[in-house]
């Protein structure tokens, strides 16, 4: 599976859940996959056909979406096509029947009208799965119901033994059950991932439509365009789409339009040009939503409050799908909130109308929120999250708070006095002393609150009301088409502790609506983020190189008639700009570089990298930054390490040596302490050098349990001093373990994300010499457990020592001796032995083996999880180090092997 992943997609690791899902599908099990937008659901159905060498059928709701996917997959060397009314090539169907495709996309309409003979022939040729993408369309409870989806159950009878897979990014419990029932899924493996899109910044602003707002918006968008970043502006009306497009054109920004009243051809053309980066801004209605799969959209603007949080999540989910930090701003004005009637017009029943109203109210609350936006969004989808995400406007900006106890008392008191029968307008008008007919008829002018709030604007009071709603002092209830506002029990408690002269303090945020600064801050906050998607990880020259590479990729794509992102992703180009590989092997090892890319454009890329790097005076094969460039928070310091530290780090990270081996390395004048080696390594990690945390945790015995104990101790006594932390912990917890935990905490997202419970479950086994029990609960575990220590004792041992040049020289040790007794410096061999599959040859015979392409390949095949360079050198001791490395390099460039975490594996 991993070989397929690297070979076709260029990635060396699966994202959370992907591997499990692929395994289940390959086992023939039905699956329901509910994972965030952009989380990589497609890969779950794209990998199995390449592993099983049978066709995958994918049902997809939109022709344009299928065409995009087909275009991108073809660039990966995958045999793929689609069937729909738009398909002009009549041979596709026959080729499909002969099993000539890895993946065949089709619309639900097409799937339902294909004759039984098509399916029986395909069954004979071999089908490995039927995937239903955007599966929420099957449910009337979903926000995008499509009646044709309901008829897909017919296929279940025809393809009774083929695993069915439903995939969606938005599905409530009700919708999930609907999908399972409608598709007749059996014994379903349900994978529900987090909805959190960590790389997205969420922000909201209220605004006044007008030229000053437009000017600011255009300035903002220009910055993205200058940095070759794509933007989508979602509007709620066609009128807005046209007006904004016009303003952009007048400002000299090329932008496309997409809405329901455009002719099909014009819409397709617009979509096509955007996907191909022919223009970088798309102004659209929600018609341009589901399935838009351009990975490098950096900015999504909502111009007006969306109709529901579901659609907001879907549309903002088009942003940053490649995982690079991206920005979503929502601009709303109060007039948007009056659109409830308009949206309710779509309803077919009273229930549906209520559901639409409720969704719309939640979207309004999202707009007015003063607390963490991500937390609110995730809660809405039933997921708990920390109170503050640190990556939304409410978490990042310093908000001024004032004591608004008197105003809250007046507003809640007035709402209460009005009997809780009205929406917000009437109580607020009463407070502001209105003498309108409605107020006089209801005798609200007789209330003691009448006129007490006339010094503040109606919008000010509404902004206060929304804060009180979001803090549960007030509740909104939908009755038929109307909503009413009343005081909650929390609000009652507050009121009962108030007198007209005294109210307990109630600090609330002073929002821009309260200060009347609506347009002042439009888009200002993300200025830093918008400057350039990758600028924080680049030097100036590297940034220049990155932009040049983007340009070269565009040229290449135009020449091939495809989209630039289909050649390779922005993230891959970022890594190329950072590392500037000089050889095919180094280029091939970059995440996102697949075999097809190497074959088609490898030489061209290498020439271009070399030329541009020379122009910019950048050395080739620069230091790579493995801290994810996606999350802005953890930018590496990359300070210079002393030679001793750098050497230790290189031996460990690149050479695959253990800490013990480095401490006792024979080439050293005198051994150093293992603890010193650990310090060196931690320093390298802190300085942003690539670092294999899972292996490190295994080596220092930092289990999940120890890690959480240390976290608890830190929470209790702080992190300033080590001693108090140590005192809090059981005696066997070591200082290195504490230091490593502190550093992991400090480095944050990039490191700790891998401690997700699932990745912990996934990473079993170990490649170092610690006992079985210890290994079983390590925090980060990287390898499968194939061998126990016991099985090693029967193995013949080669003890390695090194000559002055660091070359390994084999020595013979008795075949029956225990590993532990036999050698202080045989860790590398232990690594290899432990990784060997149970059917691997029993004993190492001491021979001076020669390395050839085939001898290396056939030996590596015995090691499912790969072999470190040191092991390979030791095993093929009949060849020189240089010749072995040259061979490995060639094989890597040819995609015969691949290197992951310093281990070489057969592809
Ligand atoms: N294991 C991986 N490593 C790196 N990138 C990946 C991996 N899996 C998927 N991706 C990339 O993530 C991006 C989003 O993936 P994909 O289109 O499958 O998302 P999705 O979950 O189907 O989203 P949506 O529901 O919004 O359509 C793609 O550019 C894809 O190539």
Automatic annotation (TrEMBL):
It is found in: Nucleus. Gene3D superfamilies: HRDC domain (1.10.150.80), P-loop containing nucleotide triphosphate hydrolases (3.40.50.300), Winged helix-like DNA-binding domain superfamily/Winged helix DNA-binding domain (1.10.10.10). GO terms for cellular component: chromosome; cytoplasm; nucleus. Residues 216-376 form the Helicase C-terminal domain. Residues 797-824 are annotated as: Disordered. GO terms for biological process: DNA replication; double-strand break repair via homologous recombination. PROSITE patterns: HELICASE_ATP_BIND_1, HELICASE_CTER, HRDC. The keyword Secreted does not apply. It catalyses: ATP + H2O = ADP + phosphate + H(+); Couples ATP hydrolysis with the unwinding of duplex DNA by translocating in the 3'-5' direction. Residues 22-189 form the Helicase ATP-binding domain. Residues 539-619 form the HRDC domain. Keywords: ATP-binding, DNA-binding, Helicase, Hydrolase, Isomerase, Nucleotide-binding, Nucleus. InterPro entries: DEAD/DEAH_box_helicase_dom, DNA_helicase_ATP-dep_RecQ, Helicase_ATP-bd, Helicase_C-like, Helicase_HTH, HRDC-like_sf, HRDC_dom, HRDC_dom_sf. Its cofactor is Zn(2+). One of its GO terms (molecular function) is ATP binding. It comes from the Eukaryota. Its EC number is 5.6.2.4. Belongs to the helicase family. RecQ subfamily. Belongs to the disease resistance NB-LRR family. This is ATP-dependent DNA helicase. It comes from Lithospermum erythrorhizon (Purple gromwell). The lineage of its organism: Eukaryota, Viridiplantae, Streptophyta, Embryophyta, Tracheophyta.
